[in-house]
Structure formats: C-alpha cells, structure tokens
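Q: What changes when 2-acetamido-2-deoxy-beta-D-glucopyranose is included in the input?
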Amino acid sequence: MKTLLRLLLLLPLSAAQTPPGCRLQGWKMDTFTQPGDILVGGIFLVYSGYNFPSVKFQEMPKPISCKGFHIRYYRDVLGLKFAVDEINNSPDLLPNITLGFILVESCMSELRASESVMSLLSGVENPVPQYNCHKTSNMVGIVGDMASALSLPIARILGVHHFPQISHGASSSALSNKVNFPSFLRTVSSNMFQNIALSQLINLFGWTWVGMLIVDNDVGEQGGRAIRAEIEKNGRCVAFSEKIHLSYSKKKILRVVEIIRQSSANVIILHSTEPHVMALFDALFDEGVIGKIFISSVSFTITPGLFSRKAWKVLNGTVGLMPKTRPMPGFESFLQSLHPASNSTYPFIKLFWETAFHCSWSGEGMQETGATSTNNQSLCTENVDLKMKIPELFEIYDLSYTYHAYLAGYAYAHALHALLMCQPADRTCANISSIQPWQVLYSLKKTPFRPPSGDTITFDGNGDVSASYDIVTIRIVNGEFQLVTVGTFNPDAKAGHVIDVNTSQILWNERFSKMLLNVFDAPEISGQMKSGTNASRRLLSSFLIKNPLE
Ligand SMILES: *[C@@H]1O[C@H](CO)[C@@H](O)[C@H](O)[C@H]1NC(C)=O
Ligand SMILES: *[C@@H]1O[C@H](CO)[C@@H](O)[C@H](O)[C@H]1NC(C)=O
Ligand SMILES: *[C@@H]1O[C@H](CO)[C@@H](O)[C@H](O)[C@H]1NC(C)=O
Ligand SMILES: *[C@@H]1O[C@H](CO)[C@@H](O)[C@H](O)[C@H]1NC(C)=O
Ligand SMILES: *[C@@H]1O[C@H](CO)[C@@H](O)[C@H](O)[C@H]1NC(C)=O
Ligand SMILES: *[C@@H]1O[C@H](CO)[C@@H](O)[C@H](O)[C@H]1NC(C)=O
Ligand SMILES: *[C@@H]1O[C@H](CO)[C@@H](O)[C@H](O)[C@H]1NC(C)=O
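A: The predicted holo structure follows.
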C-alpha cells in the first residue's frame, strides 16, 4: 500500500508536487529514449531549420516547428548510438553496466536548444526548471549541440549545475572560458587557431582584398571579429562584412547578393553554419553571381545533400577547413543494417526511410512537421535495398562531427568506468545508484579516452582537444560533387609546416583563374606569417588603387 502510494506520487511528480499556479507554461517536447542503467542526454541538430510561429494576441504563441530533415545530421545521432552499442558490447568498458541515451532535437534554434536542455534535466516532456523527475535512471551528462550558437545557451544552463556537456561540433573559442562555462568540454578543437589558418590561406594565395559573410548571431559576431583582426594584422583588407541568417527575408537576402555582386572582392570568407546560407546560395545563382571563391571556416560543414544543384555551382572551387577525423570501422555496415521494421525503435527511422526513398508511409506526404504534403509521393515499402545508397545519403567520405559524437560517447564511457570500477581504497569512487553529474565532470577532465581504433585523447584544462584541420576543396565535375583534401593545418607542427597545401590540386573556376593571374605574386608559401612587411604594404597600396573603397 505504502509503495503504491509512493508510486502514485512519483509518477506525476511535476504535476503533483508543483501546484499548477506555480508552473511556467511550456510545450510538450518530443524525446527519444534508449533505456540503460546510466543515461547520457543528447541535443542534436537533425533538421536544418524551423518555422517561426506567428504570434497573435488571441492565443498563446505556439512552439517552433522543425523542418528539413537532413540525413547527414541524422548520422551524428547514429554516431552516438554506434558508440553506445560498442560500449555495451565491450567486455572491458563498463562491464555489466548498460549505457542508454535520451535524445532531443534542436533544429538550429537557440530557443529550442534552451528548451531541450531544461526538458532533459527535468526528465519530463514539459520541462520544470529546478526539478529532476527522472524516474528510473540517472542522466549524468549531455552530448551536443553541434553548432556553437546552440551550445552556448546550453552551456550557460548546465554550468549552473556543474552538469557535464561534451559538444561534438561547437568550435567557438568563447566556450574555452571555464569561468563562464565550467562544465563545457568538446571533442572538436576550439577555433582559436582557425583565424590563423584562414589568414594564412589568404596569405598563401596572395589575396589582399576579401569579403566576409558571417552568421547573424553572437558566435558569428565574435568569430567574425577575430578572423577580421587576424586578416588585417597580416596587412590584408576586408572589403565588406555582411551578416546572414536563415530567418532573413528574401529582400534582405537580395541585398546581400547585391553587395557581393558589386564588390570587386572575389574571395569571400564564409563563417556560418550551413543552414543559414542555403537560401543565399540559391539567390546568388539565380541572380547570376557566380565565380566568387568562398573560403569556409570550420563552422561551415560541407554537406552537399543540404544544398541544391544551383548552390553547388556557387560552391564550386570553395576551399575550406574541416576538423580532422579518423575512420570508424564497422560504421558503414552498421548503417547498411538500418531497417524500419527490425530497428523500429530507432529515433527518426521512419522519417529517414521517407527521405532516403522519397516515399511516405501514410500516402499523405512526409511525416515531418511543417512539410508540405502537396508533393506526389509513392508509399514507402520495406523491401528496398539501402546498401547502394549509403555512401551518397550519408556522405561517408567525411565523418566529421559524427566521429566527434562517437568520441563523446567514449569520453563518457571511460570517465564512468574510472568512477565506477575503481578500487574502494581510491577516494574518487562513485556508487552507480548515487552517481552525481559533478563527479562525472571531475572524472571526464582527468580520464584519457580512446575509441577502439584511434589515439588516446585527453581534455586540456579548458575542456579542449588539440587543433588540427584538413584543408579541402570542392569540385563539381560532370555534375558530381567532389571533396578533395589538398592540405593540412597543424599549429603544433614545425615552423614552416604549420600550413601545407598542394595548390596544384585546387581547380579555380574559369573567371577566377584569370583574376588570380593578376594578383598572384608568389608570396610566402611556407606559411610563415610576415605581418606588415614593406612588401605586403606595397602590394596593399597598389591594390587599393585598383579597388576604390566601397
Ligand atoms: C558481471 O556479471 C556476471 C554475472 O552476473 C559476474 O559473474 C561478473 O563478475 C560481473 N562482472 C563485473 C566486472 O562486475
Ligand atoms: C537492425 O536490426 C537488425 C535485426 O535485429 C540487426 O541485425 C541490426 O544490427 C540492426 N541495425 C542497427 C543499425 O542496429
Ligand atoms: C504523380 O506521379 C506520377 C508518376 O511519377 C505521375 O504520373 C502523376 O501524374 C503524378 N500526379 C500528380 C497529381 O502530380
Ligand atoms: C551503493 O549504494 C546502495 C544504496 O545507497 C548500497 O546499498 C550499496 O551497498 C552501495 N554499493 C556499493 C558498492 O557501495
Ligand atoms: C600535388 O598534386 C599534384 C596533382 O594531384 C600531384 O601530381 C603532386 O605530386 C602533388 N604534390 C605534392 C607535393 O604532393
Ligand atoms: C567547377 O569548376 C571547374 C574548374 O574551373 C570547372 O571545370 C567545372 O566545370 C565547374 N563546374 C561547374 C558545375 O560549373
Ligand atoms: C621599410 O621601408 C622603410 C622606408 O621605406 C625603411 O626605412 C625600412 O627599413 C623598411 N623595412 C623593412 C623591414 O624592409
């Protein structure tokens, strides 16, 4: 009787123990849970955008609805799932303890990311700040988000509780500050060296006059300022610096297109997460503004599946930085085994099938929230072969962020293992039934981790890992999207080898090649920086004459 009473009280905890008048109004959040003895929360980007609801006086504003399910982003969720499966099958790592996870989706909205973290912390769909209503198991940490702009609000909230967060993609250097973000760690490097890498790329090609496109949020503003400072420190000039965001109207986008068209700068630094520039790239093509070269920062994930064929043409010749990744043995066959019937408990599996095979389960268009159901789609069937489509759908030639989500899973597993499997004589031991997130945070900072194939990694005092990038270029040849690695950037390398690029592998587009001949003056190819030398000043002044200030 007593147990029953307790159960009754426990189940609707949020409703029973907080009087209705004391509760903030919120919305139901969709979460996905894979049960386990210990849970890791995940806040992932799966959709590339959202519909912002119109706000009326007559009714309470509705929540944001996500749109644009993107398989490459979904792959990051599967990367964490793959790590959890491997860990649960491993006899050495956390034996007899099952790791599970809870997943929420942020769809590129800061508001949704904040809401997700509160929902994860309180353990109910309608989040209750300051309440932990997890019924069965302990959630000890969070993986995510991929974008810095979304990771920042999450890190602010989690920092208050010293609740660990490991981002698999946020590179903003602001997050290294442990006074502001005490519980934030990441498996990608801070973009502190990115500014140097971008600036050295520009030096390498002898460009003196560049434009900048930056995402319209705090992260873009901070990052943009740092990149600009580094470029100017090297005696180069920024022709324009324009903001862009997925919420911009057509009119605002066309204004940016005009600025790009009218500028004589043919090289544009792109510092934005990719969903924010989708509409801009289409507009650039429609308005005939092609032949500019984009130099993308690590914030920009090169994911062809997200962009239209028109945007591909605009992206042709882009040179970009990508975080270094390693192979994930077994991941491809893991993806090949995905099936909506036998893996029906997978998050987003039905939606994935619909997107992959351009079909719908109901015959009424895609399940996706906010999707238009006007398109004429066939009914989905389970008897189709996924295998051949895997490389293209999942873009498996570049595992970045998925690999980093996978690493985050291993970071948690090793930290938990160290806490739970230690000798009682050791004072840093925890008991599984009473393990605390702050204990896990302590252990994460101290415990080296490694995936089954890969090097050992340790977080530094700021929760960062060492930086090194691949330098890649995009080639659209015969209608095919190719991503070619042309070099590396490694700040720890010997002087003269920090940046290493095989320039002959970069295919500039035709209009650009002609322009390049005019300015290419074989600069300091070694990658060593010589700021403000007389040579660069001379170059600068001659260029300024050719390009009257806009
Ligand atoms: C795991 O469980 C099995 C069976 O219950 C037991 O024999 C074994 O000792 C356990 N291993 C550890 C490390 O607790
Ligand atoms: C899907 O289910 C099948 C059958 O249970 C299983 O063999 C396969 O490993 C599962 N795939 C994944 C990705 O878990
Ligand atoms: C639906 O698609 C089929 C085959 O692709 C086509 O024949 C048919 O005309 C389409 N119907 C509509 C209403 O677009
Ligand atoms: C863990 O805590 C539970 C309850 O507090 C206790 O019964 C159990 O003996 C503890 N286990 C260890 C290994 O200390
Ligand atoms: C640079 O790329 C070209 C073309 O692929 C190749 O022939 C050459 O060997 C490369 N140079 C170096 C130093 O790797
Ligand atoms: C991309 O640029 C290369 C190099 O200039 C060119 O050969 C190719 O045709 C371009 N692709 C498209 C689709 O414009
Ligand atoms: C740069 O030029 C100035 C005057 O033109 C000269 O005095 C100075 O020595 C030069 N510096 C270098 C590093 O060449």
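Observations recorded in class: Residues 7 and 105 are 30 Å apart (CA to CA).
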